[in-house]
Amino acid sequence: MTYVEGFVVAVPTANKEAYRKHAAEAAPLFKEFGVARMVECWGDDVPDGKVNDFKGAVQAKPDETVVFSWFEYPDKQTRDAANEKMMSDPRMQSMGEAMPFDAKRMIIGGFDSIVDDAADGKMGYVDGYIVPVPDGNKEAYRTLAAKCSQVFLDHGATRVVEAWSDDVPDGKVTDYSRAAHKKDDEAVVYSWIEWPSKDARTSGWEKSMADERMKHEHETSPFDGQRMVYGGFEPIVEA
Asked: What is the pTM of this model?
């Protein structure tokens, strides 16, 4: 299934168009390297959390917005080859010198999808998540995620992806482990739900939460929901 390179970035809100343009101009180069799909999503409904949240994950300042984005590859080998090309291509160096955000606070990691379900329809809104899951609960989490995925698709979602941490490095300033308050015996899951629009997302969640298949799932959850990071995002680049 899909291999995901997931990113979370804090971008000055005033730089939204500069960031969108920067990402859109970079997309053809990334596709040349082997990226099958590139998506950049601007924070829209990103709540503060009691324990952790997206803003804290990237140490976002009051005048910054969180961006949730990802690259999709057919497999890890293609991703590894693409990263090697990126590191050696001089065009990447010049691009890095003009980034409209603080790259030191960018979170990055490679994830292997364990659920990747899709339905007909375009993407107009995205729910993004970072979830800490005990290593021993991987199959239980996958089973639960697959069940919930079908419910979301039945109520309007167009795609659900759940990806298990595979190559997720520790960062000097920020990283996925700190974002999720990960414990030593846990992995990090990077996931998202695609919806046709924000209205479809609102309606879809209401219907999903009322669905009989979703009842009592919280009672047997294979992860700590209090440390789940989540938010709603508006796609600004898709290539």
From this structure: 0.96
Alpha-carbon distance 113 to 132, whole Å?
15
Give, in order, the Cα–Cα distances in Å from 4 to each of 17, 112, 161, 193, 197.
25, 6, 10, 14, 23
Confidence at residue 224, expressed as pLDDT on a 0 to 100 scale: 95
Q: Are 116 and 161 in contact (CB under 8 A)?
A: yes
Task: Provide the b/e sequence for 72-82 (b: ≥16 CB within 10 Å).
Answer: bbeeeebbeeb
Give the Cα separation of 213 and 215 in Å (integer).
6
What is the pLDDT at residue 218? 62
Q: Which residues pair with 159 in a beta bridge?
A: 118, 194
Tell me, what's the pLDDT at 1? 79
- pLDDT of 94 reads 75
Helix ranges, the chain (H): 16-33, 54-57, 76-88, 90-96, 138-154, 176-179, 198-210
Question: Comparing C-alpha atoms, which of 156, 98, 82 is closest to residue 125?
Answer: 156
Domain that holds residue 50: 3-238
Secondary structure class of 103 (helix, strand, coil): helix
**CATH number of the domain to which 158 belongs:** 3.30.70.100
For the chain, the domain total comes to: 1
Residue ranges for the chain with pLDDT beneath 70:
217-219
Angle at 164 between CA 144 and CA 206, to 5 degrees: 40
Residue 66 is predicted with a pLDDT of: 98
pLDDT at 219: 65
